[in-house]
Amino acid sequence: MATQGTKENPWKLKTPPLSSDYEMYKDEKDGKEVVVCVVGKTTLLYDFRCLDDLHAMLKKHGDWMDLGSADEQKPAKKGTVEAWGRSLKNPIGGWYDLKKGLRGRFGMYISPLMEKLGLAEVTHEAKNNKMKAK
């Protein structure tokens, strides 16, 4: 069986409310490891180190944290995974999302991958989902 998480064999995921399907895989762009997120016809890119950095932050946080998913044009609610993913205080000092104009939704798309990789638990309610480190 082919390794999962490649372009040829992407991770098949669902958003936290289990309402939409999408795929992710690891790749390289401009010499940087990235997570490619394909949602319908839209392709988003995230810095691959977001997985380790988010896991470390959640472990330190120690409890459930709201995802707080929001598009780039909208402010992220304070204290959420989304706010952390674009904060100047995170390990990379800003956005883990790499496609300007299509940034945001970090909490929505990265959390299911973290769950799939066994790094986190994610709630699956209609809205207001949360995650915590495993």
What keywords describe this structure?
globular, 134 residues, four-stranded antiparallel β-sheet, 3 helices, three-stranded antiparallel β-sheet, alpha+beta, 20% helix
Can you give a write-up of this model?
- Helices cover 20% and strands 27% of the residues.
- The protein is built from 3 helices and 7 strands.
- The protein is globular.
- With 134 residues, the protein is an alpha+beta fold.
- The protein has a 4-stranded antiparallel beta sheet, with helices on one face. The protein has a 3-stranded antiparallel beta sheet with strand order 5-7-6.
- It has helices at residues 50-61, 81-84, 106-116, and strands at 11-14, 21-29, 32-39, 42-47, 65-66, 120-122, 130-133.
- A hairpin with a 2-residue loop joins strand 2 (21-29) and strand 3 (32-39).
